[in-house]
Amino acid sequence: MTLITQVIFVVVMAIPTYLIVKRIRQIRGNILRGKPLDRSDQPAARWKSMLLVAFGQQKMFKKPIPAFLHLLIYVGFLVINLEVMEFMIDGLLGTHRTFAPYLGSFYNVAMNFFEFLALGVLISCVTFLIRRNVIKVPRFTKPEMKGWPAMDGNLILIIEIALMMAIFKMNAADQVLQARGVEGYHDTGRLLISSSLIPIFNLFGTGLLVFTERAAWWFHIVGIMAFALYVTYSKHLHIFLAFPNTYYSNLNAKGKIQNMDAVTNEVKSMLGLPVEAAPANPEEIGRFGAKDAPDLSWKSLMESYTCTECGRCTAECPANLTGKTLSPRKIMMDTRDRIEEIGQGKGEGKSLLGDYITKEEINACTSCNACTEACPINIDPLAIILEMKRYVAMEESGSPASWNAMFANIETNFAPWKFAPSDRFKWAEELNNEKK
Amino acid sequence: MSETTIKAPTVAELQSKGESPEILFWVGCAGSFDDRYKRVTIAFTKILNHLGVNFAVLGPEESCTGDPARRAGNEFLFQMQAMSNIQLLDMYQVKKIVTACPHCFNTLKNEYPDLGGNYEVIHHTTFLQEMLNNGRLKIAGGDYKGQKITYHDSCYLGRANGVYEAPRELLKSLDADLVEMKRCKTKGLCCGAGGGQMFKDAEKGNKEINIARTEEALDTGAKVIAAACPFCMTMMSDGVKNKEKEQDVKVKDIAELIQESMG
Ligand code: SF4
Ligand code: SF4
């Protein structure tokens, strides 16, 4: 390589790096538009949840086949990054296979291992493409998956396939060049998978081979950078966000609903109970519950960026299973779309509730936690649904009429049904009625 | 137990005698007012009497925990209910609560502490399991021996609080043939009543959730669908009626099954 290619390399790497950093800032800013929520307690339990759920893929294994294929891609992704390191050094220094002379025969072992992983990734991606487009696994064909989300899922698989093929092409061409004794090509030893392509490359002239090898090299490294940038705009952001997302998991019992402290203070003063000392700078109360994305906690917003749109939540949701419009996955996707829109300064006059998510959807939720249980990365769609129910009930008094009646019953009869409180203990009269 | 009278003393009664109960039996709104679920309350009271447990109920002083209000979004109403309940419970110095309703159980156990109410709360299935394990509760077997029974997991007992085994152990103690539905335990399908759904019509769809769940229960061929929650009880009973199977298939609370089989 000449100095020119080194300079080109630096420029080609710098542009996506700049764009990625900018995009990360943007996402972080959007997440921080959310309401505060303290998730800093119990660090040991949090690390454990991250290690098991994100790193260890624990919850994926509820479905063994996709879990295994996903694991191949995941491990491939992690390990092939080592090879990318060599790419980077070669690109910067203008060398070729920097590590080869240092690693000796181990280089061959490492390269074969990478090829093996690349093949695993390739096979998994092809299988996933078939599952999505030919077998049409039901959870990938729900209404919210039409258009861009389906495209996004396919694109990423195709990009990964292309990137893996580039590795094989590059290695095959390289091996032919080594065999022809062309200068500058280190002996890599026989690379088991790519060597199957050698008969094709043997037909190429040396010049064309050098070109092919370089083209594959550039395609791979530029492709990886483009991929990394693309990921920040895609559901595939989960490859990074799954880690913080599981670290900040909800560690309470699933049935527990987060208390609204602002309400506690009001209720206490209504009941004439001592109110806890008000904080020095009382933050403005804002609205009760959530009408728009920034009314949600930062964690809910982070989750919206973390969601992989896998639909495992929706596939377990009793409301969705019986044909209601509610889909917990759609709740996550809408939240993300809305906070993105707000981040771009667009969509004024719109709101998450109403323009994206309807009351019909949130009212159908049974708070059963099937979605939170099913999510492989501990996302909590129910938290968003609940905040919107709170807004509707407390700010709009817009709950369904029968719920308002239930509220009235609790208020006046201390039971959700219209029974006289004095009848509450009537059952005791029947205690000794039966003979048995 | 035919000669002895069954009692359900109130905490107030005991207090007037200078006594206090070891355990408060929190009956819940369904257990107090719903005709079908009152029979579960009665069955459990009989068990408590039979075991000689030192318990009491709040009776007319009990009030809704606020669970349906909170889950429907009315946080104000929930907290009003919760705080007055906490005042009452603290006044009576309640330490330990047992309840047959998973919604009351979840709220009292997980949500009241944030508002200052700290009690040891257990569900009646866990309570009965403990009694079984320590030998106080003896099951005579009998009616349900070898019978196919399926258990419908309540979301608020199972996923919400991780109680999966207690109800199953109790059913096994009946020597029954416990058959699981396609969806069970962590993957259990909701009966459709939680989150305040009990108190309004379902949104438009192609099926009612309780019908879908009843179909799964009937698919097991079980003659008894065991439930451990008043809402599930109603939803599953309605489902069985809808399928016109009420002659062949019974929906029963675990407390009822145990009470019938007690030695
Ligand atoms: S909690 Fe609500 S959204 Fe989640 S699975 Fe249950 S019904 Fe669906
Ligand atoms: S919330 Fe979780 S389960 Fe649902 S689509 Fe997103 S990643 Fe999948």
TrEMBL record, chain A:
Signal peptide: none annotated. It comes from the Bacteria. SUPFAM superfamilies: alpha-helical ferredoxin, Respiratory nitrate reductase 1 gamma chain. It holds the Pfam family Fer4_9. Keywords: 4Fe-4S, Iron, Iron-sulfur, Membrane, Metal-binding, Oxidoreductase, Transmembrane, Transmembrane helix. The chain crosses the membrane at residues 6-24, 67-89, 109-130, 151-171, 191-211, 216-233. InterPro entries: 4Fe4S_Fe-S-bd (IPR017896), 4Fe4S_Fe_S_CS (IPR017900), HdrC_iron-sulfur_subunit (IPR051460), Helical_ferredxn (IPR009051), NarG-like_sf (IPR036197). Residues 298-329, 355-385 form the 4Fe-4S ferredoxin-type domain. This is (Fe-S)-binding protein.
From TrEMBL, chain B:
The keyword Methyltransferase does not apply. This is (Fe-S)-binding protein. Coiled coil: none annotated. Keywords: 4Fe-4S, Iron, Iron-sulfur, Metal-binding, Oxidoreductase. It holds the Pfam family CCG. Residues 24-109, 149-236 form the Cysteine-rich domain.
